[in-house]
What we know:
A hairpin with a 5-residue loop joins strand 4 (110-112) and strand 5. The chain has one domain. By secondary structure, it is of the alpha+beta class. The termini are far apart. 16% of the residues lie in helices and 28% in strands. The mean pLDDT is 82. It comes from hydrothermal vent metagenome. This is Knr4/Smi1-like domain-containing protein.
Amino acid sequence: MSINGNEIIKLIGLPESDDKVLDLFEDLGVNRPEIDEDDCMEDINLKEKYGLNLAFDDNILTEMQKNYSGGGFFLCNIVFYSSCNFLPFGLNENDDLETIQKKIEKKANYSDTEDELNIYWFYPDLGWFTVYFTDNNFNKIAAISLKTYEDPTDEEFDFLEPIK
């Protein structure tokens, strides 16, 4: 697999032992993470080299996880920083909110009442797709994140305000 943002986001929810995830490690030139049994999360920080961060957790809730048994660590968070050369959906750091919505072909679902620089899209089969902007005019991307999470109606997400 060549390094491609669209292909990387398809890996969300897969275990770190999956062949596709192992192929990504090889393409990135990193080793499979050393999982500490006392810690439920492991990060692979590639911000300086690729503008990318991958996080693995032993307790995530996704439909994909139900296809695997025996536990393990699952890819639960992918962060693409604006410096990344392979942002998903053909995005680039100078895209504004309107351009982003056109490129991903989906209107944003939520804004953040606590941090006005964040806009959220919820995908039931993947999780939260979040764009962090550098300014409150939503004119420049700081980072993009895809995280596995539960239903957005959960009380944990009371800081989100639906976009009408």
